[in-house]
Specification:
The chain has 2 domains: 238 residues, MFS general substrate transporter like domains (Growth Hormone, Chain: A, Up-down Bundle), CATH 1.20.1250; 56 residues. 75% of the residues lie in helices and 0% in strands. The protein has 15 helices and no strands. The longest helix has 40 residues. The radius of gyration is 23 Å and the shape is globular. The N and C termini lie close together (9 Å).
């Protein structure tokens, strides 16, 4: 996850509180137009090179269709039901368009995604680690603003302030991790960074309605430091594992995996949260006794049971997320690179 994504959370709070939730999307329009104009002015493409290559339109269309149906079911699956007819149609569309995409890419000389990347063990291992990290991070961090606003009473702006130290820790950690390039094997740096990030996730498991801002800020900082610490190493490994002329394409696949991982993580941990909440409600309800015959007392008691179940479910989600990240950290052992440049390559 890159720094601008955290700044979005910080800026999104005041925008929502003052201008409504739609402003979060509308503010991107002038920024996007400005970026487009700057790219047209300052980014120059060699004319000869441009003419030698043709854009893979059918590959882009089939990949877009596959990803659209996949993201749709990730977004709506909890509402629809993961085995509902709508979900099944989305799964089928993802599979069909995915197979079409693979078939197209196998025969295209300027494929939008070079499938040879996936025969490269280094590339695949880094991609898997990147997917795991962002799945756990995005899937669990997504729940933090919900918890802060639902159970701690923060508004959107106050919640955004909680993420300021997180952005700072990433800015601090990224160059420190990059400075170790060529000095320490990348796999050990990535292992340590993923391990620290997992510990930060696990620290969230103690949250409850009495938690303070520091109870969120400190785990966010630990997690962000761990995540930022391994960023340069991952990108440098990708840059060293593919031919020089394919670094851009390889880094785009890395970024795509990161975004898919985030959507996947939100869907997975959202489902876990709902299922654990339902289970905890039944468990706590069976072991609770209300010594009153008044309807209002029963209503209060039921509300407290649900509240306790929901908080316990959040704890469970963060324990699972932390455990996945910590266990996955040791998968970095198989990311072996014979030699890597001491110059940090920024391809995120």
């Amino acid at each position: 996850m890159r720094l601008p994504q955290f700044l979005d959370r910080f800026l999104g709070g005041p925008l929502i509180d003052n201008f409504g939730w739609r402003s979060v999307f509308l503010i991107n329009l002038p920024i996007g137009i400005l970026g487009l104009l700057l790219a047209m002015i300052f980014v120059k493409e060699g004319g000869r090179r441009f003419k030698e290559h043709s854009f893979d339109w059918w590959g882009a269309i089939s990949l877009g269709a596959a990803l659209s149906s996949f993201v749709l079911v990730l977004d709506k699956g909890l509402e629809w039901g993961w085995l509902s007819s709508n979900s099944m149609l989305a799964y089928a569309a993802t599979l069909i368009f995915g197979l079409i995409f693979i078939r197209i890419e196998q025969g295209h000389h300027d494929a939008i995604v070079d499938l040879k990347f996936f025969k490269n063990k280094i590339f695949v291992n880094v991609l898997a680690n990147n997917f795991l990290v962002f799945m756990t991070m995005m899937g669990s961090v997504f729940l933090i603003p919900i918890f802060a606003q639902t159970y701690l009473g923060y508004n959107a702006t106050q919640t955004g302030f909680l993420f300021i130290p997180m952005a700072f820790m990433i800015v601090l950690a990224a160059p420190i991790g990059g400075s170790l390039t060529g000095k320490i094997e990348p796999r050990w740096v990535i292992l340590a960074s993923t391990l620290v990030a997992g510990i930060g996730l696990y620290m969230f498991s103690g949250l409850d309605p009495r938690s303070t801002a520091l109870s969120i800020i400190i785990p966010l900082g630990v997690m962000a430091f761990g995540m930022g610490f391994g960023m340069a190493q991952r990108t440098n490994i990708i840059a060293s594992a593919v031919p020089q002329n394919e670094i851009g394409a390889a880094s785009s696949v890395l970024a795509l995996a990161r975004n898919i991982a985030g959507a996947f993580g939100i869907a997975v941990f959202g489902t876990i949260l709902q299922n654990v909440t339902n289970s905890k409600v039944l468990e706590i309800g069976r072991n609770s006794l209300i010594n009153s015959h008044k309807l209002v007392d029963f209503q209060i008691g039921t509300s407290l049971v649900i509240l306790k179940a929901q908080v316990a479910a959040y704890d469970q989600v963060f324990i699972i997320a932390g455990a996945i990240a910590i266990l996955g950290a040791f998968g970095s052992y198989w990311i072996k690179v014979d030699k890597i440049s001491t110059e940090t390559v920024h391809v995120e």
